[in-house]
Design goal:
The chain is of the alpha/beta class. The protein has a single domain, classed as Sandwich (Hypothetical Protein Aq_1857, Chain: A), CATH 2.60.300. 16% of the residues lie in helices and 46% in strands. The chain contains 2 helices and 9 strands, in the order βαββββαββββ. The protein has helices spanning 10-23, 71-74; strands at residues 7-8, 27-35, 39-47, 55-59, 62-66, 78-84, 87-93, 97-100, 107-109. A 4-stranded mixed beta sheet has the order 3-2-5-4. Strand 2 (27-35) and strand 3 form a beta hairpin. The radius of gyration is 13 Å and the shape is globular. The model has no long low-confidence stretch (mean pLDDT 89).
Length: 110
Amino acid sequence: MNQEQISLTEAAADRVRDFMRKEGGIGLRVDVRRTGCSGWAYDVGIARGSEDSDHVFEARGLKVIVSDKALPMVTGTEVDFVHDGLVREFRFRNPNVTAECGCGESFTIG
């Protein structure tokens, strides 16, 4: 895997394909936003397009689009999708994270 690449588990790829079948789009957008007690939160959704400054990767046959701002924070991340009881959510295995808040909603890059 390219170190700058974002990877998807099969469960995450299946979930993205489900969303795309219902909503259209060109792939998964991965971004970050300032929030929470640890500073950053993931912002994911179906991409409708891409900007010239975006980085576009392929994972499991899907486009993964990452903003230029987010790339240094998410490089090497694996995106998973879990269904645990009533919880259905994307989860991130990000080697760049140095701390996470107690609620798991935000993270710090050191």
